[in-house]
Design goal:
By secondary structure, the protein is mainly α. Helix content is 70%, strand content 0%. The chain contains 5 helices and no strands. It has helices spanning 5-17, 26-43, 47-71, 82-90, 101-119. Helix 1 crosses helix 2. The longest helix is centred in the middle third of the chain and has 25 residues, at 47-71.
Length: 120
């Protein structure tokens, strides 16, 4: 598919804004350019075809966000709060298992241990 200069610039802008320009995430960069292609198609389409392409663009954006969330674990802003959310979920009275602070502490210690191994 031949891309216009505007579409290429939009793809490059998406790559830069998502901090993918200096990464090894080739798929993430490709997905950003794919989304820019879809956005250009939306602008030049009408009727049901436009709605179909908008839906594809929406799905591609969600797929890119999911990919980035998995690929770039170091860029997860709520990563440090995951133990808190695990604790809150464990306190759910509808759960059939019992809550164990000891079990939660083991998980937290192993996470800290894994993080400290990655530091040095």
């Amino acid at each position: 598919m031949k891309q216009s200069k505007e579409t290429l610039r939009l793809g490059e802008l998406l790559v830069k804004e998502l901090d993918l320009d200096q990464s090894v995430d080739t798929l993430g960069r490709w997905m950003s350019h794919h989304i820019s292609d879809l956005m250009a198609e939306v602008d030049s389409s009408e009727g049901t075809k436009k709605q179909e392409i908008e839906d594809r663009c929406h799905e591609a954006i969600l797929a890119l966000w999911q990919h980035i969330g998995v690929f770039q674990k170091s860029h997860r802003p709520l990563e440090d709060t995951e133990t808190l959310f695990t604790t809150i979920r464990a306190l759910d009275p509808e759960k059939t298992h019992t809550f164990s602070v000891r079990k939660l502490w083991k998980v937290s210690k192993s996470q800290v241990s894994m993080k400290s191994q990655n530091i040095g």
